[in-house]
Write a structure and sequence with these properties.
single chain, five-stranded parallel β-sheet, alpha/beta, 7 helices, 49% helix, Rossmann fold
Length: 164
Amino acid sequence: MSKLKIVYVNSPARTGKDTFCDMCQEHIKCKTVSTVDYIKEISRREFDWDGVKDDRGRELLASLRYAAGKYNMGPIVRMGHIIKDSQDLDVLFIMVREFSEMDRMQQMYGGETLSVNRKVSICETEQKFLDEFPDDYKFDHIIQNRGSIEMLVINSEEWCNNLN
């Protein structure tokens, strides 16, 4: 491939998003980043966050994330810099939780959307996300993760082989 493809990834926790993106590294030159990576860095450095996503940790991350977004569209602008520095890749996977941000970045930077589908037992903290997950959102790519890890390996290889 010669041109960077930007892929915004959005799915509930434990569906296999990270695993899928990691498996793609076997077939293409790619990298995975998240809109909250730098918020986590700031939380560790400035607030001594221990990396635990308990109620207290999630509140810290959410508060900083909200402030950065309101102040200057921080996560969206940050991704623009990462995109600019990733032109040597085939694919840049961007993990993004908020649909409005995913749509905004797609308008600003182009790219496609991807969801990994897997039936998982949902913990209480994920229920809010699922309640906000629109049933009618039209993803460009949907990866079915309904079998073994071997099936996900096959799905990732097929997806990479079908890149334009």
